[in-house]
Design a protein that fits this description.
The protein is α/β, with parallel strands linked by helices. It has a single domain (4-173), classed as Rossmann fold (3-Layer(aba) Sandwich). Helix content is 60%, strand content 13%. The protein has helices at residues 16-29, 44-55, 57-60, 63-87, 98-105, 113-124, 139-146, 152-173; strands at residues 4-10, 34-38, 91-95, 131-135. Strands 2-3-1-4 form a four-stranded parallel β-sheet, with helices on both faces. Helix 2 runs antiparallel to helix 4 (63-87) and helix 4 runs parallel beside helix 6. The radius of gyration is 16 Å and the shape is globular. The protein starts with a strand and ends with a helix. Belongs to the thymidylate kinase family.
C-alpha cells in the first residue's frame, strides 16, 4: 500500500509550520497514520546539515555549494523518512521540499536551474508530492514580524522576490 505525500511551501512567516502541525494533529485524531517532518532536517544527518545551512557558513561558499548541501539533506530525508513512510501507507506532511530549494537558491538572481534539476532527480527517487500547498500571506505582516532595523529594506526586496517565485510555482500547477 502506498501512502500520500503532501508538501507545504511558502515564504518565511507564512504559517506553514502552524498549519502542518494543525493538519497532522487533526489527521491523527481521525485515525490516520501521519508523519510530520521538515526540510532541511527530519533526520540526524539532515539536522546536522540544517545547522550548517542556518549558520550562514555554507552561503559563503556559494549557491552551488549550498544547493548541494540541501540535496544531501534531502537524500537522507527521502531515504530515511519519506520513502519508508510512504511504503508503509502513511501520510507524510513535509514542511518545505523541492519548491523551496528552487525559490531560495534563485532569490539572489543566479540561474542554477540546470544544476538544481540534476540534484533534484538524484535526491527524490521519483517521490514527487501528491499535493503541494502554497502559503502566501500579506507581506507587511511578515515584515512586521520578522524584520527590524537596518536589514528591513534589503530583506523586503529578498522577500518580494521569493514571494513572486512561490506565486509563479503555484500558478504553474493550478
Amino acid at each position: 500500500m502506498s501512502g500520500y505525500f503532501f508538501t507545504f511551501e511558502g515564504g518565511e512567516g507564512a504559517g506553514k509550520s502552524t498549519q502542518i502541525s494543525l493538519l497532522g494533529h487533526f489527521l491523527k485524531q481521525k485515525g490516520y497514520d501521519v508523519v510530520v517532518t521538515r526540510e532541511p532536517g527530519g533526520t540526524e544527518g539532515g539536522e546536522a546539515i540544517r545547522h550548517v545551512l542556518l549558520s550562514g557558513s555554507a552561503l559563503k561558499a556559494g549557491k552551488l555549494f549550498e544547493a548541494t548541501l540541501f540535496a544531501a539533506a534531502r537524500i537522507d530525508h527521502v531515504n530515511e523518512v519519506i520513502e519508508p513512510a510512504l511504503k508503509e501507507g502513511k501520510i507524510v506532511l513535509c514542511d518545505r521540499f523541492i519548491d523551496s530549494t528552487r525559490v531560495y537558491q534563485g532569490a539572489n538572481g543566479e540561474n542554477i536551474n540546470q544544476y538544481l534539476d540534476i540534484l533534484e532527480k538524484s535526491a527524490i527517487h521519483g517521490h514527487m508530492p501528491d499535493i503541494t500547498l502554497y502559503w502566501i500571506c500579506r507581506q507587511k505582516q511578515v515584515w512586521k514580524e520578522l524584520i527590524n532595523g537596518v536589514e528591513r529594506a534589503r530583506m523586503q526586496t529578498v522577500l518580494k522576490k521569493m514571494l513572486l517565485r512561490f506565486k509563479k510555482l503555484a500558478g504553474k500547477l493550478s
